[in-house]
Protein: CHAP domain-containing protein
Organism: Actinospica durhamensis
Amino acid sequence: MTRTRRPAATVLTTGVLTAGVIVLTPLAASAATSGTDIAALATANVGKGAGSCSLANSTPNSLGGAAYGTSCTGNGGNAEYWCADFAKWVWQNSAGGAVTNASTLNAGAVSFYNYGIDNATLHTATTYKPQVGDAVVYDVVVPAGKTHGRSADHVGLVTSVNPDGSIETANGDFGGTSGSGEAYFAETSTVVAATIEPDQIPVGSTPSSVGMTISGYITPAGLAPSAPDGYLPLGEDGGTAGPYATDPYAADPYATDPYATDPYADGEYDGSGGYADVHGNAWLRSAGS
């Protein structure tokens, strides 16, 4: 799909070692949103239009609103390209609005890319594995000598990571009718679910289901931490101590552990059974793993 470029515009955890198994308990998790909350709100609006201005589906959004922010009025009182309006609305309204600094986002898809830079949650490595709740931004233009983007074509939200490695995304302002201006495109588009196949997930790829090139993934700041592969938070196993799945990153030197971040840049064992994830949370792992 081709369209005019959109304008620019620690949480800590506790761990308990029991018979070689780590039980992880995020502190104050009830007060923070999670990627699952974001996915639930995004998918609840698949098929809906920009709001009351929509010619495709003018029913209220899942929270009863008549628009996603300025989706129906941001273009001089008319409908605007609203993929970023939708993604911002989801982040802001998930689990009480616990995503931090979401107010810095705007109707420009590039604002998500710049949010990732400003909050240190932008992922541009081709090896990055998207997480549920991440934003995925397409066709970002970064001026020479600059770090922040000037424009982008689209932003969607990751709503599921499938067992085969593919991901599901929810895309506001998708599938509209081109050729009659911004307002008409926005009025005829809807929230569309799109699957991205495993080989089309890396940054720099152009998913066939989207038709634009991935510039980066952005994790919302303020998320309640999710347990790394092989671990479950307390209670998700029915309240017992295990058993848990095998952690695929459990052997030294954890060179490809996607949850690693400085000071354990490649996920090395830190000598006390722990390592840090992409959110800066210090997860414990059993000494025998």
Notes: The chain has four helices and ten strands. The longest helix spans residues 83-93.
